[in-house]
């Protein structure tokens, strides 16, 4: 299991103790833990209209929130690479540049032509996403480390997985909070330049070749190259990138991206996400993988931090309590090009 607070020693234990005592005070309603938090200056703050039943929710303290956020960024490909934009309200606009100033030759004594950059706004609407885990109602002081690791890891994994699902597979329905992902965009007929179709018959990962991957690189604009990366599942990585590299005797090199050990293919990092196809069988008509600059192509609107709430009723027969952690966010792919212009990201679609 990933650790909420990596490392060892008194400083790490202090972080676990602060996070664990807060959980015991709020979720388990332990009086002694609440008094400990009061002495240490750890705020126990109610979150308005956030929670289950009459218990309400609590704003997660900085130490625990940072642990969940760090793990979420490690598990999730989209949030880690997209532009994260703080939202001041439930609806917000992300400023996007749509055109640049132009340069002209100027004759001697002639007036210069006036040009300017063009801007518009990408609409963001926050949606509430929740992840629920269960805990024993008999937790005690000796379980602090395990409790913090369990809550932080399980919640971070669930939130990251759903964020990736929305960004890559969202179809605009309530299943994805109304969000539309890259896989849907490249098939809608309005983003032909972002749709790179694999060669005839190349409808599985095991049949893709270096030409298919090269065509993906050619599917994004030059300004997206410096921050470009491959986005693929672990199955796609093994059956495509590792296979091609083994056959050619190279191309894959190890490195670090965002503090995470990563393989590079042809100089671009391979970012793994389990929300892209994980099968060795045919994927005809589906997005197989993506390539490009996610920071330039997408925005993750973040309305607020995490809140946590409890319920004693749902799992009463198991002597467990339900713990719900929620966030508010929106994910928008805003630069996948169109039918005439390349964008910051492209997707490989099986024929």
Please describe what this structure looks like.
This protein is of the alpha+beta class. The protein has a domain of 137 residues. Helices cover 29% and strands 28% of the residues. It has 9 helices and 15 strands. The chain has a 7-stranded mixed beta sheet with strand order 7-15-12-8-11-10-9. Strands 1, 2, 3, 6, 13 and 14 form a 6-stranded mixed beta sheet that branches. Strands 4-5 form a two-stranded antiparallel sheet. A hairpin with a 2-residue loop joins strand 10 and strand 11. The radius of gyration is 24 Å and the shape is globular. The model has no long low-confidence stretch (mean pLDDT 88).
Number of helices: 9
What is the rounded Rg?
Answer: 24 Å
How helix-rich are the residues, as a percent range? Answer: 25-40%
SSE succession:
HHEEHHEEEEHHEHEHEEEEHEEE
Instruction: Strand order, main sheet: write it out.
Output: 7-15-12-8-11-10-9
Shape annotation: globular
Spans of 5+ residues with little confidence (pLDDT < 50)? none
Global mean pLDDT:
88
Distance between the termini: 39 Å
Helix/sheet category = alpha+beta
What is the β-strand count? 15
Major pleated sheet: 7 strands, mixed
Q: Strand share of the residues?
A: 25-35%
